[in-house]
Design goal:
By secondary structure, the protein is α+β, with helices and mostly antiparallel strands. Helices cover 32% and strands 21% of the residues. It is elongated, with a radius of gyration of 32 Å. This is Colicin.
Length: 525
Amino acid sequence: MPNEDTINVDGSSGGKDSGIHWGGGGNGGGNGSNSSGANLSSTPEAQKPAAYGVPAVIGVYDGMWGFTLFTKTTLQEAMQAALTRLEQGAVAAAPLAGRLLGATIGALIPSEIAKDDPRMMATAHLVNSLPFDKVSTTPPAALPTQKATVVHTRIADIVDEDGKQHIAVVKSKNMPMSVPVVDAKPTKRAGVYTAGVVPGKPDLHVKVDTGKAPAVSQSQSKGIQKEQGPSRFPGFTSGQSTHEAVVRFPDGKSPPIYISVTEVSTPDQVKKRQEEEKRRTLAWALNNPVDAAAKEDKDAGDELNRAQGDIVKAQERINKAVQAIPLRKSELDDSNKRVENAKKFVQETLKYAHDQSHPGHRVFQQAGYQLGLAQEDAKKRQTAYDASLKEKVDAEKALSVAVESRKQKEQKKKASEQKLADEKKKPRIGAKDYGHDYHPVPKTDEIKGLGDLTKGAPKTPKQNGGGKRPRWYGDKKSKIYEWDSQHGELEGYRASDGSHLGAFDPASGKQVKGPDPKRNIKKYL
């Protein structure tokens, strides 16, 4: 089979047998077939059924991988909730001006993804998909004229202080984000298309199915822990292990779809990325003290709000406990009364205890049996009553902790407000004045994700007048990249007219800032 990403557009599975019978959502088999028995060498798209907004784990088998996307399913709850949180998160007012907000929807647990399949773990990736109109306002009809399109929403991986890799929905209202647009090309197989999504990786085979989806397509894959993270800045390395594309189909045979593919990182990779995130955050804070103080103030405000929410929850817990105590006490009292009555009846029938021939002996036995039941019930009622008393004590302790936490958060918020006010009053000074150097110039082979680069002669003067910016040429010398030592980013320009293309992360090639129409290096070409 040719080495190409395969996309199959098929709407027949709603009423007919598609020939692929889904098993328990297995991740594939070691002999080129999955748990359902489908041959992944001829139908690699059978590896995993998926739905919009549901992360699915896929891996490479014999140079093949893929999934089937059921497009008639509704957007999954976790994804829709994340989009709503971001929409309500005042993205435009985020302290990190021109940056992003993100909300996590899942945490990756590599050890659980493919315990019984080492080959899967070695090539494991997480694939997510969304309808194109959920990520962009660009009319689908405009896509054939573009090699990339602007989006307002992406699905990307981030790393957190918990030492885990997370999948997040990332959104921006004031920073253009660009995603490649790729054509779905016909193959020799009827209804099958090819498209390149992940550079340097084997085929990604995708079947777009408009039929009825199996339930397993909407279930969470193993190794992905569901989350509903709050909206926040996703970090400077967000999307570092993620590739994405908007796939368009010829002749309008299917609406365009957004696909995001994330490589599952090892613990060591996550640790290194955490270190990079800390370094870049510190560098950003040193160069942007007002914005850093504003972010700190916002974070403090969010913590204070959560602390207040904890108080409300603790108070509600106390109220429930207070209401439960008299009910449990009443139930215990009634049960104890039944025990006393049962004991009296046993005493009344005790005279028949040793006369087995008398009819009263059976009455005595029944009285003893009823006493045992009453005592068991009283024991349960006592346990429930004791638990209600303990719950009240525990709830009061939780309230005390929450109140103390709120006091600390209030102090932190006041301090952050004062720090922000002080920073706004300070005369601005550069990072060197703080005793820190600017970002060192990377070596050409250290720059990733921008294709083959050629070192060029510096021509553009630095803003501080201290020499000229290091320069590289890319994309057959049609693009120019220059080193921004203050922010540790590569500024991209069009070689034909010097127009600005945006700023790019040197570690991944991901765009981190949109084009600035005011910037131009035409006179330094």
